[in-house]
Design a protein that fits this description.
alpha+beta, 4-stranded antiparallel β-sheet, globular, Kinase-like_dom_sf
């Protein structure tokens, strides 16, 4: 399974994605428990959607979902 993140495309979006993925791969390489970014094609970490959005994906991790409850 994977988690998909959609981002509105802007001038610095791709640089931001590359930085985030590089950092996560670095941490993962040192056995730090972080989500693993997935490549969406042979040459790219993201897919362009209609020129307005970018899609990136992460490996789904095991965990427990907690929700905040109001009073």
């Amino acid at each position: 399974m994977m988690i998909v993140k959609l981002l509105e495309q802007s001038g610095d979006t791709t640089d931001s994605i590359l930085s985030e993925f590089e950092w996560l791969r670095y941490l993962h390489g040192y056995q730090v428990s972080v989500v693993k970014p997935l490549r969406l094609s042979e040459t790219s970490d993201w897919l362009e959607l209609n020129g307005d959005y970018l899609a990136v994906a992460f490996e789904k991790v095991e965990g427990t979902c907690y929700t905040a409850t109001g009073s």
